[in-house]
Design brief:
The protein is of the alpha/beta class and about 425 residues long. Helices cover about 20% and strands about 25% of the residues. It is elongated, with a radius of gyration of 24 Å. Helix 4 crosses helix 8 and helix 6 packs across helix 8. The two termini are about 35 Å apart. It has a 16-stranded mixed beta sheet that branches. The chain binds zinc ion. The site of zinc ion (ZN) has 3 residues, from loops. The site of zinc ion has 3 residues, from loops.
Amino acid sequence: MNGRASNSRDEWIAATYIASQFQMWNLEPMGDNGGYVQAAEILREQMSAPAVLSAGTGQFTHGKEMLVTALTGAKVSGPLVKLAPGVTSVPAGSVVLMPEAPAGPPAAAGRGRGGAPQPTVGAALVISLATQTPEQWTTAAAKPVSAGSRFAKVTPPAGGLVRTARVALNRDAYNAVAALAEGTAVSLQAELSATKAFTWNAVGRLTGSDPTAREQFVVLGAHLDHIGMRENAPGPDKIFNGADDDASGTVAVMALAQALAAGPRPKRTLVFALFGSEEGGGTVSGSSYFVELPVVAIEKMVAQLQFEMLARPDPMVPARSLWLTGYERSNLGSQLAKQGARLVQDPRPDQSFFTRSDNIKFARKGVISHTVSSFNLHTDYHQAGDEVSKVDFAHMLDAVRSMLEPVRWLANSTFTPVWAPEGRPR
Ligand SMILES: [Zn+2]
């Protein structure tokens, strides 16, 4: 499948293949039009005419006096706030003029890696003095400017997306804005055009046998896409098969689906969801679609387990074992381990794997969600060498099989996992 690139024909074929297996095992369809495949339509917006910043009597145009480095919509506006040194926050929706900062990267929106709050959180627009060389300026001005991607069917959350537009001004324009009074209305306007793309999920379920408990859902997931082909890859192999990342997780979920479908029907409902566009999707990944436009209500999900990169053993944990990201954040992992899952604590917390897989989309919505993995930091990660020949099938078989009865137990029990204090991510 040419590496199952996000949003590609091959991703769609992979989803369709999984759907055909789900059908063969008599899972019930949860996709579009009575099938198992769920197509998420994506609109990729970009600037189609140079944006203009209006501030006081000044008008500054992208490519001339200004460079737009991040665009969040057709129009953003707000009152000017000239950020003074030592100020740690600004009112939501403000247009922030950054001080003539010492050299270094501009402060990012949101929280820094260390968790320190950035003063521009919640700002509509951040204006800085340009630091580009003339060559960099020309190159940047010639590039298309993305205004982000969104799902055609998903309404942005009330209050808008928490994202901040960014522009850099040349010296004269910067001075003109700096001379304006605090609170002056400033706006950035752009013309946008959209191109369409899709990503595909394959989703099926086994409805629970108990009339009450069947309204509670246990969701097993993995991502079915990978990074496709790279013509400039070293060596003759240009296809990145992603045997470990994440064909291994995908077949683990498929094997569990097949085994669970063949056995006695558990009381709770089991959902099997293979997501598209984990690799290239960002905010428009298949898992985001699944939580933003859920076919199962979020609050009815008892737990979600994501399976990611378990084709090779991790020497940091016992043989034929898997580790669970964010193990200590809830009581799910310890309970599954008590039921026989070869599941231990994530031995590599410094890698922040809890927030680097599709599980985080669920966890941020409050669902107890973790990723099951044994990724050993091998150097074939996102390389052409992530091949099926390097899969340790004995490890995979034992480790994944150890999850079967614990998952069945979870689907049959009244145990509802809970977050540990401070366990739920923000
Ligand atoms: Zn990957």
